[in-house]
Amino acid sequence: MAQKPEILHKEIIGRTQIFRVESVQLKYSNGEQRVYERLLSRHAAVLIVPIIDKEHILLIREYAVGSDNYELTFPKGLVEEHETLLQGAQRELQEECGYAAGNLTMLRELSLSPGYMTHKTSIVLAQDLYAAPLLGDEPEPIEVLTWPLADIDSLLARPDFSEGRSIAALYLALRHLKKNN
Amino acid sequence: MAQKPEILHKEIIGRTQIFRVESVQLKYSNGEQRVYERLLSRHAAVLIVPIIDKEHILLIREYAVGSDNYELTFPKGLVEEHETLLQGAQRELQEECGYAAGNLTMLRELSLSPGYMTHKTSIVLAQDLYAAPLLGDEPEPIEVLTWPLADIDSLLARPDFSEGRSIAALYLALRHLKKNN
């Protein structure tokens, strides 16, 4: 197993309102050198899988400017400075779905594209839900859908349920529920 | 269901060697306006799940500068101009694992983070493998691992098997194999 490359130099080379790009000069243990770019994340992110009852999950549907389409996904967002990961998950669940959870379980941390980005997302299972809406800053109301766990096939077949993180989170949640029920 | 926002204006506001950021001014159907930023992708990407025999998959282990760690993942890469998606998948499998596939199946397209990025990755199942190495442009040799399908639990428990896309691809591949065997 190779020894980790040494970072010889790093430097911010681009910055917009929400993106920062860093150039990183590396020396591998075999002497090879490379300069790569990576995108820096500024905040931890959470993605929540809400279990509304034993047979259904909640999904949201909102416009995504990256795909220029409405996307079916799980509630998610950035954790604020003063929040823990679970507090951020609770708030996002309230803002995007109108529910709070009596029971939040951290499933695991996922990376987005670790070759190019430092971003991490924590996947949280939300159970024992109760109505507790909070106003978010969305430009239009988010649509909340109840999806039957018996019909995962047609969910996975939908082109608008496209996000790798969401499909991974669904898989991790289903495995967790299966093991613990 | 709301009508899709209208794009009033878009403009490249940042550019490095590998990243391009676009600013997009939107008008929602309710009249609300927002300006968002998104990262533009330049090439289609493929991620390959290689089935080496009925009971094992292949994984690769390589250094990722985003996480500054060695990551366990599936072979993947960008499709070149002159290639189809499946030709790109075949080449990446040869360069990163040393195998070609007699049988390549497109499982589905995933998005990375559709709220912030236009990037798409096609997930390809590779079966009927045979040795056919191609030289890639890696700074150090990529480690190839054979992983038993009977031990998915410990794979999912590894912090270095962290990528949302990889976990989603594993799930999609296992479902496909289960349905077709």
Number of E-state strands of chain A: 10
Poorly predicted regions of chain A are: none
Structural class of chain A: alpha+beta
Question: Which percent range fits the helix content of chain A?
Answer: 10-25%
Number of helices of chain A: 3
Give the second-level CATH assignment, the architecture of the largest domain in chain A.
Alpha-Beta Complex
The named CATH superfamily of the largest domain in chain A: Nucleoside Triphosphate Pyrophosphohydrolase
Tell me the series of helices and strands of chain A, N- to C-terminal.
EEEEEEEHEEEHH
Q: In the CATH hierarchy, what is the class of the largest domain in chain A? A: Alpha Beta
Mean pLDDT of chain A: 97
Query: What is the rounded distance between the termini of chain A?
Result: 39 Å
What oligomeric state best describes the polypeptide chains here?
homodimer
Number of domains of chain A: 2
Shape field of chain A? globular
Largest protein-protein interface: A-B, 67 and 67 residues
Largest sheet of chain A: 7 strands, mixed
Describe this structure in words.
- Two copies of one chain form a homodimer.
- In chain A, strand 1 and strand 2 (20-27) form a beta hairpin.
- In chain A, the strands form two sheets. In chain A, strands 4, 5, 6, 7, 8, 9 and 10 form a seven-stranded mixed β-sheet that branches. In chain A, strands 1-2-3 form a three-stranded antiparallel β-sheet, with no helix packed on it.
- The longest helix of chain A has 17 residues, at 164-180.
- Chain A has two domains: 6-40, no CATH class; 45-180, Alpha-Beta Complex (Nucleoside Triphosphate Pyrophosphohydrolase).
- Chain A contains three helices and ten strands.
- The first copy, chain A, is globular.
- Chain A starts with 5 loop residues before the first strand and ends with a helix.
- The model of chain A has no long low-confidence stretch (mean pLDDT 97).
- Chain A is 19% helix and 46% strand.
- The first copy, chain A, has helices spanning 85-97, 152-156, 164-180; strands spanning 6-15, 20-27, 33-40, 45-53, 56-64, 69-73, 76-78, 99-111, 120-131, 143-148.
- Chain A is an alpha+beta fold and 181 residues long.
